[in-house]
Amino acid sequence: MSTTTASSPTVRIGIIGGGLMGREAASAFGRWFTLEQFPVKVELTAVCDVQPAILEWFAQIPSVRLRTQKHTELLASKDVDVVYVAVPHNLHESMYLDVLRSGKDLLAEKPFGLDPASAGRIRDEAKRLGRFVRVSSEFPFLPGVSRVFQMASSGALGRILQVRVGFLHSSDLDPTKPINWKRMNKFCGEIGVMGDLGMHVAHIPLRLGWKPKTVYAQLQKIHTERPDGKGGMAQCDTWNNAMLHTTFEAGGESVPMTLEMKRMAPTETNTWYIEILGTDRGARFSTKEPKTLWTYRRDKEQWWEKTDLGFTPQFKTITGGIFEVGFPDILQQMWAAYVAERSGNLGARFGCATPDEAVASQQIWSAALESQRTQSVVRL
Ligand SMILES: NC(=O)c1ccc[n+]([C@@H]2O[C@H](COP(=O)([O-])OP(=O)(O)OC[C@H]3O[C@@H](n4cnc5c(N)ncnc54)[C@H](O)[C@@H]3O)[C@@H](O)[C@H]2O)c1
Question: Do residue 119 and residue 151 come from a single domain?
């Protein structure tokens, strides 16, 4: 790769949905110069949101030349090469298809439609039209997660004994928290918390080829109504907690894996964790200790070793190697992986979640719903 220069190619990006994640993406683009020796520049040129106050927020970014409430206007712009869509889940399929048919590439948000059929339709249309599409999932870009993935994919762990992956929030424990679209099936689909948090949990197992063959799900709703923000109460019909007990095949053996997605996990604020235990070695990482990797090796005695990884992302930045890594950093790393892969510069690095992985994740959530309905183990 060459050092970024004035002549580096520039990818022009449009955002549809400038809420929580749309603004995080803008922050990642705004600090693009912190990436060292990165071959492609990015420029945020257009933003679409139905809320005028959000469009106003984007007025402070000089490169944004188009601010519109109509996504079709953004898609008609000749100033946009790639579109990032971060809108409620019920809009994913129609908006993603609109992006693909407008001739642009797409970084889609999870869960990539509401069910396996809609995820499949998006994937197939992208393939038919030859568009470059990836799905947002940033935790694999943490240095600690990257090391766990490398250990697992290298075969160093021996025979896999068990896997646990989870993503935990606690904010929904508060029954006075007003409802929003993520708590209503009509906006986020029947999969509820699995659509909200699940791609993050499934991404590493799926990349390792560990797709569940069986699923037994325990789903919980808990608070079934919430303040509607207008003085009344609204129905909160989504699944809030999901514990999936699954098995996958590795080395000809069935391996147990739990996938845990919760919005009511006491004390947890965006805790993502993974633990993979093998007969020879094991690895464990949690965002509770964001620079710490835990590993063990088999010996006469066994013990967990703790390593401080510091700031060692896969795309080097100006940040010092001993500093701590945070959410905005891994989001920028994810975008760097998207842009690098799109331009043929990813090499052996970890790439963003693929449409096939999004479809596979939806198949797991669909099996979980069936398991909950039938109170039985479902085969995939
Ligand atoms: N990768 C992650 O870590 C992460 C974290 C949170 C959310 N998400 C995903 O990002 C997406 C958006 O979630 P969010 O938390 O940013 O939601 P949000 O509610 O904060 O933002 C959604 C935005 O979409 C806008 N919008 C709604 N309808 C629109 C339309 N027709 N045209 C244009 N804009 C429209 C809303 O006005 C709002 O500003 C979801 O798919 C969610 O699952 C991903």
Answer: no
62-71, 143-152, 213-222, 223-232: segment of lowest average pLDDT: 223-232
The structure's pTM equals: 0.96
Task: Compute, in angstroms, the gap from residue 195 CA to the centroid of ligand 1.
Answer: 13
Structurally, how many domains does the chain consist of? Answer: 2
DSSP state of 340: H
Domain end: 108, 135, 162, which one?
135
Ligand 1 test: best mutation among 15, 16, 20, 171, most atoms within 8 Å of CB?
A: 20
Percent of the residues in the chain that have a pLDDT greater than 70, as a whole number: 98
Residues near 191 by beta carbon (within 8 Å), at least 6 away in sequence:
111, 114, 115, 198, 239, 362, 365, 366, 368, 369
Q: Is 2:33 a contact under the CB 8 Å cutoff? A: no
301 and 160: one domain? yes
Write the residue with the smallest CA distance to atom 25 of ligand 1: 17
Does the pLDDT of residue 1 top 80, yes or no?
A: no
What pLDDT, in 10s, does the model give residues 81-106?
A: 999 999 999 999 999 999 999 999 99
What residues flank ligand 1, with Cβ below 6 Å?
16-21, 48-51, 54, 71, 86-89, 91, 109-110, 136, 138, 196
* Close Cβ partners of 7 (under 8 Å, ≥ 6 residues apart): none
